[in-house]
Amino acid sequence: MLSAPHLNYFASQVQEKKSQLRIERSKFFPEFSLGYVRQKIAPLNGLNSWMVGVSFPILFFPQRSRSKQAKVSLQIAQWEADQNRVQLNNKVEELYCRVRQQQESLDYYAKAALKEADALQESALMKFKESEINITEFVQSLNASRDIRRNYIETVYAYNVSVLEIELYTE
User: How far apart are CA 105 and CA 146, in angstroms?
Assistant: First the structure.
């Protein structure tokens, strides 16, 4: 299941555009305003006043245009939110596939490759002690063993990163 914070973020973007559309549509109606002003101009005090205002829209063409623009923006936001959900879902599916693949690699290392690296290292050490191989062949064998272990550690790291990403994008 996809994470609620991500889905809520996508929904909030759509909600913002809906609110903007409602604001633009509300401007077709008269607006009322009420205000209070308290001034102090030396030497006069107590210059208080109330203001009441009413405004009526006379031309509707500009407002109709802004309303249509807000409606188009809302539709675009809905499409983007849907697209973002699809992309997030695809990302999670891709991460699950990557984790399965990395788990198979880890199983291979645990069952065969690490044992092979140990055997290679022991064999090289014994052959070097008995002078069957020279120093360059010994170093090459140790490097091969080390490379296997390094690849194993890199695979563990990549697996952990993928699992953390899955936790980030899911609940």
Answer: 17
* Cα–Cα distance measured from residue 88 to residue 5, given in angstroms and rounded to the nearest whole number: 12
Q: Which two tokens stand for residue 170?
A: 């899911």
Per-residue pLDDT tens over the stretch 11-42:
999 999 999 999 888 888 888 899 998 888 87
Q: How many CB atoms within 10 Å of residue 100?
A: 10
Helix, strand, coil in percent for the chain, rounding step 5: 75, 15, 10
**Domain-wise residue ranges, the chain:** 88-171
Per-residue pLDDT tens digits for 72-98: 999 999 999 999 999 999 999 999 999
pTM of the entire predicted model: 0.68
Q: What angle do CA 49, 55, 60 make, to 5 degrees?
A: 165
Name the DSSP letter for residue 2.
Answer: B
Q: Kindly list the distances between the CA atom of residue 135 and the CA atoms of 34, 127, 141, 143, 147, in Å, as whole numbers in the listed order.
A: 94, 10, 10, 12, 18
pLDDT band at 70 (very low <50, low <70, confident <90, very high): very high
Query: If 0-12 CB within 10 Å is exposed, 13-18 middle and 19+ buried, where does residue 44 land?
Result: exposed
